[in-house]
Amino acid sequence: MADAPAHAAPEPTGPAPAIALRGISKQYPGVIDNDNVDLTVAHGSVHAIVGENGAGKSTLIKILYGEQAPDEGTITVDGTLRSFKSPRDAIAAGIGMVHQHFMLAGNLTVIENIVLGDEPGKKWRLDIDGARERIVELSHRYGLNVDPDAKIDELGVGERQRVEILKVLYRGARILILDEPTAVLVPHEVDELFASLRGLTAEGVTAMFISHNLDEVLAIADAITVIRAGRTVAHVLPADVTARTLAELDGFPVYPDYMIPKVFRHWGIFTYDDDLAAAIDERRLVAKDSEWEHALRWATVAAADALRARMGEHHRTLTGHY
């Protein structure tokens, strides 16, 4: 049984929440992925879920999206108890998933990708004009700004992500699960995504934001749930915590400031300010993913921003030699 969360934000009051997970547990042979997880997501909010690799985030969202069944616990959507046997059931309940790795056909247009598998018909004829009209309306309504006739291969990463968002909105989703949505984006695309999310939530759409980037979580989230070792350890509001607090809660080692230069000297890098990105570009950093995540947490916000700007979508997969 999980302990009570170490930190707690006020539970939403008033109307039923968009999502309420209670006592969600999932176990595999020798491994407990989710252990009595609780989660409440308010309507029209961006709710972040954070935790280190292996904390149980992926299993939890797979359960919510109907890709896996929980061993125990309940799922309530808009006050109605639900049991999902497949993603189709979740979609029917208004839940859509925007995957980290886009599921788009590059040789098809935006409109063809969006309607694929959900083709609109009018008296046994494919109603592409009707689909285009609806896609344009959704794009304008939520500020997604996507050309429905553009080929996917012609679009940038941020635009492709907006197509994925449009695809789930087209199918009626009012609750979006975004799995590491900024991992492949450069800074200006992150800004565009956050602007889109604010436009969506202003229209009553709910977003669940799964991320490792604590600074981004603090910038976009209305509420945060921290999961550690399969358990809910905290429900917090961004105004009440810092990136360091979140890092401590989700189990990452947090080093005092005076140790930061030593970390980078170990990698042959002698600064952690705005010049860090240039140093890495020059010397080609070799680091395991876990070390890389830790380094971003130890670095200053300015250094993290510089890293992302320099490395773009490959910022977590650098290889090479000193």
UniProtKB/TrEMBL annotation:
<dbReference type="GO" id="GO:0005524">
    <property type="term" value="F:ATP binding"/>
</dbReference>
<feature type="domain" description="ABC transporter">
    <location>
        <begin position="19"/>
        <end position="254"/>
    </location>
</feature>
<protein>
    <submittedName>
        <fullName>Unannotated protein</fullName>
    </submittedName>
</protein>
<dbReference type="InterPro" id="IPR050107">
    <property type="entry name" value="ABC_carbohydrate_import_ATPase"/>
</dbReference>
<keyword id="KW-0067">ATP-binding</keyword>
<keyword id="KW-0677">Repeat</keyword>
<dbReference type="Pfam" id="PF10343">
    <property type="entry name" value="Q_salvage"/>
</dbReference>
<keyword id="KW-0472">Membrane</keyword>
<keyword id="KW-1278">Translocase</keyword>
<keyword id="KW-0547">Nucleotide-binding</keyword>
<keyword id="KW-1003">Cell membrane</keyword>
<dbReference type="InterPro" id="IPR019438">
    <property type="entry name" value="Q_salvage"/>
</dbReference>
<keyword id="KW-0813">Transport</keyword>
<dbReference type="InterPro" id="IPR027417">
    <property type="entry name" value="P-loop_NTPase"/>
</dbReference>
<dbReference type="Pfam" id="PF00005">
    <property type="entry name" value="ABC_tran"/>
</dbReference>
<dbReference type="GO" id="GO:0016887">
    <property type="term" value="F:ATP hydrolysis activity"/>
</dbReference>
<dbReference type="InterPro" id="IPR003439">
    <property type="entry name" value="ABC_transporter-like_ATP-bd"/>
</dbReference>
<dbReference type="GO" id="GO:0005886">
    <property type="term" value="C:plasma membrane"/>
</dbReference>
<dbReference type="InterPro" id="IPR003593">
    <property type="entry name" value="AAA+_ATPase"/>
</dbReference>
